[in-house]
Amino acid sequence: MKEQFEWWRTATIYQIYPKSFCDSGSQGTGDIQGIISKLDYLKTLGVDAIWLTPVYSSPMIDNGYDISDYYNINSDFGTMADFDQLLEQAHQRGIRIVMDIVVNHTSTEHAWFQSALGDKNSPYRDYYIWKDPVDGGAPTNWQSKFGGNAWELDEATGQYYLHLFAKEQADLNWENPKVRQEVKDVISFWAEKGVDGFRLDVINLISKQQDFPNDCLGDGRRFYTDGPRVHEYLQEISEAVFQKYGSVTVGEMSSTTLEHCQQYSSLDSKELSMVFNFHHLKVDYSNGEKWTKAPFDFLQLKEIFNHWQQGLNGKGWGALFWCNHDQPRVVSRLGDDQQYRVESAKMLAASVHMMQGTPYVYQGEEIGMTNPGYTSIEQYRDVESTNMYDIMVNEHGVTEQDMLAILAQKSRDNSRTPMQWNDSQYAGFSKGQPWLEVAANYPEINAEKAVVDDNSVFHFYRRLIELRKEIDVITTGDYTDMMPEHDSIFCYKRESESQVLVCINNYYGEVVECFLPKALELEKGEYVLSNYAGVTEQKPTHCFALQPYETRVLLINR
């Protein structure tokens, strides 16, 4: 059985946010037929699997992460027949399908919640978490991750339900075995169709501390993050479904710890195949606060990578990524999206792809798409962004101009702008007005141009995907940060008995001298990748100048 899981260790997975990927018509939102039309593009890129963010029936309060029917496709995206065609067409090209599944909560429009609402005797009442008021108000002071209190009153019964996200996303009660059986049934339905794996949204939040205490800071995360029964629940689902179908699974882990992730992704596959953690994407959170405009902490970034790379090696497995539908574009965030856009996009890609784990490429990342640089709140659609704008401006006294600058750096809409396919109107995404404004740089930054340019970011990603399959040490090697205190170079070593790989990255726009340790046997080495011309023809030396945002990958065969 274990062998069925192994394909993903050398694989690269491509994330599609369907609403923004490709519209096959003129409705202005992407659809499944649009995805099918781009499968040959993805085959050319060389990815092994597609991760689809939710395409289930949903009122789209949180862009599909509020599911109202787990067994049907949202009509905005197409039909079940369209989905079956996608599955068939992808499999014909050797591309697997990983579906996003959200089982921490459902939409309040889900039939279960609609039955439970206003009726304490409903058979579905205990599918959700209900509490009586305390002192005439909310049961606890826990905060929703989207702002405001995490409890909403059901006036008909006088009880509150828990929603860790939007009030339209009611948390499921995993203490109820009927809920766990429903989850098994849902996942089995899609696995039976031939879906190859599942990405489990905020899966480490499913178990809540049952005494529901107040938090001294009003946060509450410590009472439901990596909760008391979470490993028990995941082992139950894994044994019943994931192991039965040989599904690859990746868990999104919110505010988690290394110790928990070692268990979630343990090599015995009793819970999940791999984990997403987000600690490296909080290095530009000033004092831990997301809604601030701040530079990133480079030394902290390296320290976090070192902690997770060494901590998971031989114990678990991680997902490698910079971008997703919830994160700003990395070339705008950590690179230079103007003068050195191509160089910094390539460098950032190499610096994570040469680590141990399974890389995830988010749509548009492979062509170096940037944040759009919106200047008005009217341009934003994301519920988190608009909520936080209102809170920060109206309650915390932040000026509109300052909050717009923060959103331009931190909003989830930065990554949700339509995929830039060509230089025609709306970037070739749709024949109609897109649901979210296209970034203005699409005439220069688009897939059509990238595919025909041998030096593009696209072809650099192609090579990274190939190298993972060609060089064993990328999958198996130990990890050592060779320059943890250097203030501009990120240089790490991957080492096995037969190979040493060194990934050298300049994270800034200035030339810097690099000195490699004399112990490296450079006479046995060669450069296998660089983002500057001529480097791979050079003989490696211990001392050299790194150009702005330069990356070099050095391989030594012993």
UniProtKB/TrEMBL annotation:
Transmembrane segments: none annotated. CDD domains: AmyAc_SI_OligoGlu_DGase. InterPro entries: GH, GH13_cat_dom, Glyco_hydro_b, O16G_dom_2, Trehalose_TreC. Residues 15-416 form the Glycosyl hydrolase family 13 catalytic domain. GO terms for molecular function: alpha,alpha-phosphotrehalase activity. Keywords: Glycosidase, Hydrolase. Its EC number is 3.2.1.93. The keyword ATP-binding does not apply. Signal peptide: none annotated. PANTHER family: ALPHA-AMYLASE FAMILY MEMBER (PTHR10357), NEUTRAL AND BASIC AMINO ACID TRANSPORT PROTEIN RBAT (PTHR10357:SF179). Belongs to the glycosyl hydrolase 13 family. NCBIfam families: PRK10933.1, trehalose_treC. This is Alpha,alpha-phosphotrehalase. The gene is treC.
